[in-house]
Amino acid sequence: MIAGLPLFTGMRNEELDFLLARARSARYPKDTAIFDQDGKADAFFLLLDGHIRVVRLTPEGEQVIARYINAGELFGIAVAMGRTTYPASAIAAVDCVALSWPNEAWPELTARVPQLASGTYRTIGQRLQETQDKVVQMSTEQVEQRVAHALLRLVQQAGRKTGEGIEIDFPITRQDIAEMTGTTLHTVSRLLSAWEEKGLVRGGRQKVIVTDPHGLMLIAEHRRKR
Amino acid sequence: MIAGLPLFTGMRNEELDFLLARARSARYPKDTAIFDQDGKADAFFLLLDGHIRVVRLTPEGEQVIARYINAGELFGIAVAMGRTTYPASAIAAVDCVALSWPNEAWPELTARVPQLASGTYRTIGQRLQETQDKVVQMSTEQVEQRVAHALLRLVQQAGRKTGEGIEIDFPITRQDIAEMTGTTLHTVSRLLSAWEEKGLVRGGRQKVIVTDPHGLMLIAEHRRKR
DNA sequence: CCTGTTGTTTGAGACGGCGCAAACAGCCTG
DNA sequence: CAGGCTGTTTGCGCCGTCTCAAACAACAGG
User: Are residues A101 and A197 in the same domain?
Assistant: First the structure.
């Protein structure tokens, strides 16, 4: 099961065993913190099951959701960036299961299994890229487009097909969506209501179902200028 | 001279020689592109002298300035993130001198000089962190605060002391500042005029001098809520 | 020195999204 | 099943910022 993850492709069985033998597996109940922003980074993680919210807190006490981590992804990899503290908090959005390795083992692990290092760095590269994309979006797009983009991304990364459409398969509030896109829950609520009117989505308490991804895409890509 | 850079601290002389022997040095005149967004990544760079603008172009043709690179910093390190193309363009803001290494040499270089790898990954980690900070700022701050922050950062990273204050030591337009902060040149111009009124800055064509960094800091940190 | 180009300033008006407020709805607990 | 809690919806008014427009200033090149 674990061997199927992209991180581990091309690894020999003995390498995999080596990694797993040194990993600790743990369960994290919904809404618990796996680690805290600015806390001492002493381990890195691989999410086996569930969904995790990566949250940054501003000095003023406002929250910003940097990203969601889905099953199969690494997180808390501060050690690979030469950091000694975590730059954000990780909160279980649902009950989660994750492997973790102590940071002291990092040199040994990567020396023995170079794929771990390269996979980790590729992940970091992707995240940097994604984050830069987000900056570009926040610089150039209207709130409506940003929310549409965020929803489409959630659908793609954590969508579960249902009778009426594709549902985000973890509980997510309007407030959460607002914190992902840099707006207020009021505006998100209004947008979702308008979209529901048009038959693009269906809402519910801590729930969003996208019924017409293509229609949403049109909104997301909509250019106002030129 | 080169040996003093943070990237090279703790390297033995022979390691440094090994790196330099494989590097190519080149001059890039003002306003020329060192590499282009989405172009094939075939080398990575170390800026020896000058200032470089890292620019992303949106599908709609709008520009966003991701960051400035200053002397002593690595750039174009796509290879370390497992990328085959550059995610942005690099434009010389002034006449520049940079070392470059072909990407094919990366495995050999890092194998022989592990400090190069760890330094590069630390750089990437810092950039990820900075970029996330930018997202948080764009989510939570007003334009005025963002511009103030951007200016303070420029002063810190590329400030040159003059009689009247600290000047950004490369030509920078209102448009550039707008593209750094996700606003328009008009708004930037209005802000700078207002600040000049208050004696915080002095402007000029492609020029900004900060005369009262502390005053600017107050604006940057100004909380509207609570 | 004149002229075109590039960068800057400033005004007027419009509007998107926010703050505030209030009512409502689904869920958990006792 | 009553009550509190948490999440959602919606209206209204305002403010910050953008858009559009025009004039101005600095510099470069012929």
Answer: no
